[in-house]
Amino acid sequence: MSAPLDLRFLTSATRLAQLPETRAEVAVVGRSNVGKSSLVNALARRKDLAHTSKTPGRTQLLNCFAVGEDATFVDCPGYGYAATSKAVRQSWQPMIEGYLTGREELRMVMALVDGEIGPTKLDVQMLEWLRHHGLPHTVVATKHDKVKSSQRQKRKRELAERCDLEPGDVVWVSAAKNVGLDRLRDLVRLWLDLT
Ligand code: GDP
Known about the structure:
The chain has 195 residues and is an alpha/beta fold. It has one domain: P-loop containing nucleotide triphosphate hydrolases (Rossmann fold, 3-Layer(aba) Sandwich). The chain has helices spanning 36-44, 51-54, 86-102, 121-132, 152-162, 181-191; strands at 7-13, 24-29, 62-67, 71-75, 106-114, 137-142, 171-172. A seven-stranded mixed beta sheet has the order 1-3-4-2-5-6-7, sandwiched between helices. Helix 5 (152-162) links the parallel strand 6 (137-142) and strand 7. The longest helix is centred in the middle third of the chain and has 17 residues, at 86-102. 36% of the residues are buried. The structure holds guanosine-5'-diphosphate (GDP).
Protein backbone atom coordinates (compact mmCIF):
# COMPACT_ATOMS: atom_id res chain seq x y z
CA MET A 1 0.00 0.00 0.00
CA SER A 2 1.44 3.40 -0.91
CA ALA A 3 1.73 6.17 1.66
CA PRO A 4 -0.95 8.87 1.59
CA LEU A 5 -0.11 12.04 -0.29
CA ASP A 6 1.19 14.60 2.16
CA LEU A 7 -1.12 17.48 1.19
CA ARG A 8 -1.05 20.64 3.32
CA PHE A 9 -3.43 23.50 2.57
CA LEU A 10 -1.50 26.60 1.56
CA THR A 11 -3.80 29.21 0.13
CA SER A 12 -6.83 30.03 -2.01
CA ALA A 13 -6.25 32.24 -5.02
CA THR A 14 -8.51 34.07 -7.43
CA ARG A 15 -5.89 34.14 -10.16
CA LEU A 16 -2.62 32.73 -11.31
CA ALA A 17 -0.53 35.64 -10.01
CA GLN A 18 -1.62 34.91 -6.43
CA LEU A 19 -0.40 31.33 -6.41
CA PRO A 20 2.82 30.55 -4.54
CA GLU A 21 6.04 29.74 -6.34
CA THR A 22 6.51 26.05 -6.99
CA ARG A 23 8.84 23.60 -8.66
CA ALA A 24 6.14 21.35 -10.09
CA GLU A 25 2.36 21.25 -9.92
CA VAL A 26 -0.54 18.92 -10.57
CA ALA A 27 -4.06 20.34 -11.01
CA VAL A 28 -7.39 18.62 -10.65
CA VAL A 29 -10.49 19.68 -12.59
CA GLY A 30 -13.99 18.27 -12.92
CA ARG A 31 -17.63 19.22 -12.84
CA SER A 32 -19.36 19.73 -9.50
CA ASN A 33 -20.36 16.46 -7.85
CA VAL A 34 -17.89 14.37 -9.85
CA GLY A 35 -16.27 13.28 -6.58
CA LYS A 36 -13.32 15.70 -6.58
CA SER A 37 -13.33 16.51 -2.85
CA SER A 38 -13.76 12.86 -1.93
CA LEU A 39 -10.83 11.94 -4.15
CA VAL A 40 -8.53 14.67 -2.81
CA ASN A 41 -9.35 13.59 0.75
CA ALA A 42 -8.82 9.93 -0.12
CA LEU A 43 -5.45 10.55 -1.78
CA ALA A 44 -4.30 12.27 1.41
CA ARG A 45 -6.17 9.74 3.56
CA ARG A 46 -7.84 12.63 5.35
CA LYS A 47 -11.50 13.27 5.99
CA ASP A 48 -11.58 17.03 6.06
CA LEU A 49 -8.89 18.33 3.77
CA ALA A 50 -10.89 19.22 0.69
CA HIS A 51 -13.71 20.59 2.83
CA THR A 52 -11.51 23.63 2.98
CA SER A 53 -12.33 24.04 -0.68
CA LYS A 54 -16.04 23.63 -0.04
CA THR A 55 -16.44 26.31 2.59
CA PRO A 56 -18.60 29.17 1.30
CA GLY A 57 -16.51 31.64 -0.63
CA ARG A 58 -13.83 29.12 -1.48
CA THR A 59 -15.70 27.02 -4.00
CA GLN A 60 -14.84 29.44 -6.79
CA LEU A 61 -11.16 29.68 -5.95
CA LEU A 62 -8.00 27.83 -6.86
CA ASN A 63 -7.18 25.93 -3.68
CA CYS A 64 -3.49 25.26 -3.43
CA PHE A 65 -1.88 22.52 -1.33
CA ALA A 66 1.79 21.85 -0.68
CA VAL A 67 2.91 18.34 -1.46
CA GLY A 68 6.35 17.20 -0.38
CA GLU A 69 9.02 19.89 -0.03
CA ASP A 70 8.55 22.09 -3.04
CA ALA A 71 5.70 20.82 -5.17
CA THR A 72 2.03 21.83 -5.22
CA PHE A 73 -1.39 20.42 -5.96
CA VAL A 74 -4.20 22.73 -7.08
CA ASP A 75 -7.86 21.88 -6.66
CA CYS A 76 -9.71 23.91 -9.28
CA PRO A 77 -13.32 24.99 -8.78
CA GLY A 78 -15.90 22.54 -10.11
CA TYR A 79 -17.60 23.50 -13.34
CA GLY A 80 -21.17 23.15 -14.54
CA TYR A 81 -23.07 23.36 -11.29
CA ALA A 82 -26.65 24.19 -12.29
CA ALA A 83 -27.24 26.60 -9.42
CA THR A 84 -24.16 28.63 -10.26
CA SER A 85 -25.06 32.10 -11.42
CA LYS A 86 -24.15 33.29 -14.88
CA ALA A 87 -21.82 35.88 -13.34
CA VAL A 88 -19.93 33.17 -11.47
CA ARG A 89 -19.70 31.02 -14.60
CA GLN A 90 -18.38 33.97 -16.56
CA SER A 91 -15.66 34.64 -14.02
CA TRP A 92 -14.80 30.94 -13.68
CA GLN A 93 -13.73 30.48 -17.25
CA PRO A 94 -11.10 33.22 -17.57
CA MET A 95 -9.70 32.34 -14.16
CA ILE A 96 -9.33 28.65 -14.82
CA GLU A 97 -8.17 29.11 -18.40
CA GLY A 98 -5.66 31.76 -17.36
CA TYR A 99 -4.33 29.47 -14.68
CA LEU A 100 -4.10 26.32 -16.78
CA THR A 101 -2.51 27.99 -19.79
CA GLY A 102 -0.25 30.30 -17.79
CA ARG A 103 1.23 28.05 -15.12
CA GLU A 104 4.63 27.00 -16.44
CA GLU A 105 5.23 24.51 -13.65
CA LEU A 106 2.03 22.60 -14.37
CA ARG A 107 3.03 19.01 -15.07
CA MET A 108 -0.35 17.32 -15.28
CA VAL A 109 -4.07 18.08 -15.21
CA MET A 110 -6.17 15.32 -13.72
CA ALA A 111 -9.49 15.59 -15.56
CA LEU A 112 -12.15 13.87 -13.47
CA VAL A 113 -15.09 12.15 -15.14
CA ASP A 114 -17.94 10.47 -13.27
CA GLY A 115 -17.48 6.73 -13.88
CA GLU A 116 -21.11 6.00 -13.14
CA ILE A 117 -22.66 8.44 -15.59
CA GLY A 118 -19.77 8.84 -18.05
CA PRO A 119 -18.39 12.04 -19.53
CA THR A 120 -20.87 14.90 -19.86
CA LYS A 121 -20.83 17.37 -22.72
CA LEU A 122 -18.92 19.81 -20.52
CA ASP A 123 -16.34 17.12 -19.67
CA VAL A 124 -15.79 16.45 -23.36
CA GLN A 125 -15.45 20.19 -24.00
CA MET A 126 -12.88 20.41 -21.22
CA LEU A 127 -10.85 17.56 -22.74
CA GLU A 128 -11.01 19.17 -26.18
CA TRP A 129 -9.88 22.45 -24.67
CA LEU A 130 -6.95 20.77 -22.87
CA ARG A 131 -5.91 19.07 -26.11
CA HIS A 132 -6.28 22.27 -28.11
CA HIS A 133 -3.84 23.97 -25.72
CA GLY A 134 -1.48 20.99 -25.66
CA LEU A 135 -1.81 20.66 -21.89
CA PRO A 136 -0.77 17.31 -20.40
CA HIS A 137 -3.80 15.63 -18.89
CA THR A 138 -4.97 12.29 -17.53
CA VAL A 139 -8.60 11.23 -17.35
CA VAL A 140 -9.53 9.87 -13.94
CA ALA A 141 -12.89 8.08 -13.78
CA THR A 142 -14.47 8.30 -10.31
CA LYS A 143 -16.99 6.13 -8.41
CA HIS A 144 -15.74 2.80 -9.79
CA ASP A 145 -17.76 1.06 -7.05
CA LYS A 146 -21.00 2.41 -8.51
CA VAL A 147 -20.55 0.49 -11.76
CA LYS A 148 -21.80 -3.11 -11.52
CA SER A 149 -18.99 -5.59 -12.00
CA SER A 150 -20.90 -7.24 -14.85
CA GLN A 151 -20.97 -3.87 -16.68
CA ARG A 152 -17.42 -2.77 -16.01
CA GLN A 153 -15.63 -3.95 -19.14
CA LYS A 154 -18.26 -2.44 -21.39
CA ARG A 155 -18.43 0.79 -19.37
CA LYS A 156 -14.66 1.18 -19.40
CA ARG A 157 -14.58 0.82 -23.17
CA GLU A 158 -17.45 3.27 -23.66
CA LEU A 159 -16.10 5.88 -21.29
CA ALA A 160 -12.65 5.78 -22.91
CA GLU A 161 -14.18 6.00 -26.37
CA ARG A 162 -16.24 9.05 -25.47
CA CYS A 163 -13.06 10.67 -24.16
CA ASP A 164 -11.30 9.71 -27.41
CA LEU A 165 -8.88 7.48 -25.49
CA GLU A 166 -7.95 3.82 -25.18
CA PRO A 167 -9.37 2.02 -22.10
CA GLY A 168 -5.87 1.64 -20.64
CA ASP A 169 -5.37 5.42 -20.68
CA VAL A 170 -8.11 6.04 -18.11
CA VAL A 171 -7.33 5.71 -14.41
CA TRP A 172 -10.35 4.28 -12.59
CA VAL A 173 -10.75 5.08 -8.90
CA SER A 174 -13.20 4.75 -6.05
CA ALA A 175 -12.64 7.08 -3.11
CA ALA A 176 -15.34 5.17 -1.23
CA LYS A 177 -13.91 1.69 -1.78
CA ASN A 178 -10.22 2.47 -2.11
CA VAL A 179 -9.90 1.38 -5.72
CA GLY A 180 -7.01 2.67 -7.82
CA LEU A 181 -5.84 5.13 -5.18
CA ASP A 182 -2.37 3.63 -4.72
CA ARG A 183 -1.77 3.77 -8.45
CA LEU A 184 -2.99 7.37 -8.68
CA ARG A 185 -0.79 8.42 -5.74
CA ASP A 186 2.19 6.84 -7.49
CA LEU A 187 1.32 8.69 -10.68
CA VAL A 188 1.07 12.02 -8.83
CA ARG A 189 4.50 11.39 -7.29
CA LEU A 190 5.89 10.52 -10.70
CA TRP A 191 4.42 13.63 -12.33
CA LEU A 192 5.87 15.78 -9.54
CA ASP A 193 9.24 13.99 -9.45
CA LEU A 194 8.75 13.08 -5.80
CA THR A 195 10.50 9.99 -4.57
P1 GDP B 1 -17.26 17.27 -5.72
O1 GDP B 1 -18.42 18.20 -5.81
O2 GDP B 1 -16.69 16.95 -7.05
O3 GDP B 1 -16.21 17.71 -4.74
O4 GDP B 1 -17.85 15.85 -5.23
P2 GDP B 1 -17.90 15.15 -3.79
O5 GDP B 1 -16.57 14.58 -3.42
O6 GDP B 1 -18.53 16.09 -2.82
O7 GDP B 1 -18.85 13.92 -4.13
C1 GDP B 1 -20.13 14.09 -4.70
C2 GDP B 1 -21.01 12.92 -4.27
O8 GDP B 1 -20.48 11.71 -4.80
C3 GDP B 1 -21.07 12.73 -2.76
O9 GDP B 1 -22.36 12.31 -2.41
C4 GDP B 1 -20.04 11.63 -2.50
O10 GDP B 1 -20.34 10.87 -1.35
C5 GDP B 1 -20.20 10.78 -3.76
N1 GDP B 1 -18.93 10.08 -4.07
C6 GDP B 1 -17.71 10.61 -4.27
N2 GDP B 1 -16.79 9.66 -4.54
C7 GDP B 1 -17.45 8.48 -4.50
C8 GDP B 1 -17.04 7.11 -4.71
O11 GDP B 1 -15.88 6.76 -4.94
N3 GDP B 1 -18.03 6.17 -4.61
C9 GDP B 1 -19.33 6.49 -4.33
N4 GDP B 1 -20.20 5.49 -4.27
N5 GDP B 1 -19.74 7.76 -4.14
C10 GDP B 1 -18.81 8.73 -4.22
